[in-house]
Each structure stands twice: as C-alpha cells, then as structure tokens.
Amino acid sequence: MPPKQPVTILKFKRARSTYVIPIQLTVKKNFTIASFTETLAEAINLSGGLHIIEDGNMADEGEPDEGLQVKASDLTIALPKVKETPYDNVWIPVEDDSTLQTIVFQDYDIIAFKFGDDVEFRIEQPEYED
Questions:
Q1: What 3-state class would DSSP assign to 67?
Q2: CATH code of residue 36
Q3: C-alpha of 84 from chain center
Q4: Residue 37 covered by a domain
Q5: DSSP output for 82-100
Q6: Which of 9, 37, 66, 108 could form a disulfide with 72 if both were Cys (CB 3.0 to 4.6 A apart)?
Q7: pLDDT tens digits for 93-122?
Q8: 8-14 and 75-80 strand pairing
Q9: pTM of the model
Q10: How many whole angstroms separate alpha carbon 89 and alpha carbon 127?
C-alpha cells in the first residue's frame, strides 16, 4: 500500500466562526489563494453557510439562523503578523500566491478571513463557561 499524503489541518477564523480544514500541502496546486478560498467556501457552504453576527451580538435563540452561501471570490484571507499571538488581531493580507508558498504551516495554524465588504480581519478568542 502506498504511503498516505501528509495532511495539515488549518483553522480559518472570522469573528466567532471557525472552520477546521485538512489540506494536502505537499501538492503545489494547493498553495494558491484560489485553492485556499475555494476549499474554505466549500466548507462554509457544506456546514450550513456563513452566519453573520453584527457587533458581537449573539443571534436570538428562538429565531432560525440561516447561513449565507458564499463564493470563493467573496473571501479574503490573511496571516497573523506574529504566528504565536493571532488573537492580537494584527493581520497581513495574502495578496499573492508566493506569500503562501514561503510559509511553513503547522497543524492548527490560524488563518483569518473576511467576507464581502468586512472592513478588517478580526477573530475572537473562544471563551468557555463552567
């Protein structure tokens, strides 16, 4: 049996939303902005769509929360300026494929994304209640 291709698991985050996606980074065609955003858009749509929460407010529990179906062209990605502190929300937008090709990704690295006309990249650190 041939060996399995190594897979890297990346976290794509926007505000409180997180999409954990396995990507085969040993395949050169996967090191493109288009590949990342297409994979992310597919994950968002298969999970029920993107849920927009305005100004940090939670959706009302009694209302059905329908997600928006997105296209790869609606999404923009960014890398943290300091990989160890992504929740500082200092992001470097990925503007060309060469940026992705110079990064060594590790499992569970965080990549921020914006949707449509979002003004900035922003993620929130998860809070757990007892």
A1: coil
A2: 3.10.20.90
A3: 17
A4: yes
A5: STT-GGG--EEE--SHHHH
A6: 37
A7: 999 998 888 888 899 999 999 998 889 999
A8: unpaired
A9: 0.83
A10: 16
